[in-house]
Amino acid sequence: MSAVSDSIVTESRSGLSNGTAGDFFALLKPRVMSLVVFTTLVGMMTAPHVNPVIGFTALLAIAVGAGASGCLNMWYDADIDAVMRRTAKRPIPAGRITKDEALGFGMTLSVGSVVTLGLVTNWVAAGLLAFTIFFYVVIYSMWLKRATAQNIVIGGAAGAFPPMVGYAAMTGSFSLETVVLFSIIFLWTPPHFWALALVKSDDYRRAGIPMLPVVAGDDATRLQIILYTLVLVPVGLLPAFMGFAGLPYALVSGVTGAMMLVLAWRVYRRREGDAARKAAYGLFGFSILYLFLLYAVLLAELIVGHDRVAALGTAAARLVGAA
């Protein structure tokens, strides 16, 4: 595909590597891994009882499993990473780590994380973690990503499973609450990534990835963004309506959800030039904050209780008013 990708193949055959510990850590996609840890923790805290020692060990195993998925994704996607500007400096296309090393590293972490989770907690959670890794690496990376414009929609399920894995690790079962948490991430994924794809469509086109803007065009993508956001916002309020989140969560979800709709509408209306790019970047950036705030407030409520979080919010508002 390119001189860079040719060098990846050559280096893999020679078995040489200049990789450092930092390069191997980068293969784990640490930013994605941190999000997985965060959402897994929220799923765990919805369980009736959480053993701190078992919970910490399970969280570590799930984090390693998420990192293994990222590593195997980079192993398989090394050819397209080499021709995309935003990924060309990753360890494999940059020539610092060989593909064989990445494959061995990823497989070792995958097996180790699943076995550890099974031995420490239960095999229901371990099975779901194994399926999540399989789904991300095989179903999404090897198949959907290069085959359909709906790659992000279907493949987004892999990033939505962690709350369910966390709950299963504590209970050996599933719950309606974690299905809702799954649904929030699942519905959040398309508008989040399509906003970025609108800006990076030339990169995806060069790499031959059929992202929605490349296949259906920017206008169709903008319509899909606003439609998904219209569904996401009420689903984001479900934890409060179902009773496992309180008033603070409802307020944060309602306000940030309204802002998501405003930003999605801007993306839909602003279709040319710098204004269109700023609108897309604005939605992309705020969507990260939106998901973080929903899960952070829910986590605070689950740890300290709905009433205490509400009382702290009221006290803070009074202090701000007094100032």
Quick gist of this model?
The protein has helices at 3-14, 21-26, 30-45, 52-76, 78-81, 99-120, 123-147, 151-155, 157-160, 162-171, 176-199, 201-207, 212-215, 218-236, 238-242, 247-269, 273-304, 306-322.
Please render the helix and strand layout as text.
Layout lengths: L2 H12 L6 H6 L3 H16 L6 H25 L1 H4 L17 H22 L2 H25 L3 H5 L1 H4 L1 H10 L4 H24 L1 H7 L4 H4 L2 H19 L1 H5 L4 H23 L3 H32 L1 H17 L1
Q: Runs with pLDDT <50, length 5+?
A: 1-5, 7-15
Shape: flat
Radius of gyration, in angstroms, nearest whole number: 21 Å
Binned, the helix content reads over 70%
Mean pLDDT: 91
Any idea what the CATH architecture of the largest domain is? Answer: Orthogonal Bundle
Which range does the strand content fall in? under 5%
Number of domains: 2
What structural class is derived from the secondary structure elements?
mainly alpha
In total, the number of strands is 0
Helical element count?
A: 18
Distance between the termini: 61 Å
The major sheet is characterized as:
none
The CATH superfamily label of the largest domain reads UbiA prenyltransferase
The ordered string of helix (H) and strand (E) elements is HHHHHHHHHHHHHHHHHH
Tell me the CATH topology of the largest domain: Tetracycline Repressor, domain 2
CATH level 1 name of the largest domain: Mainly Alpha
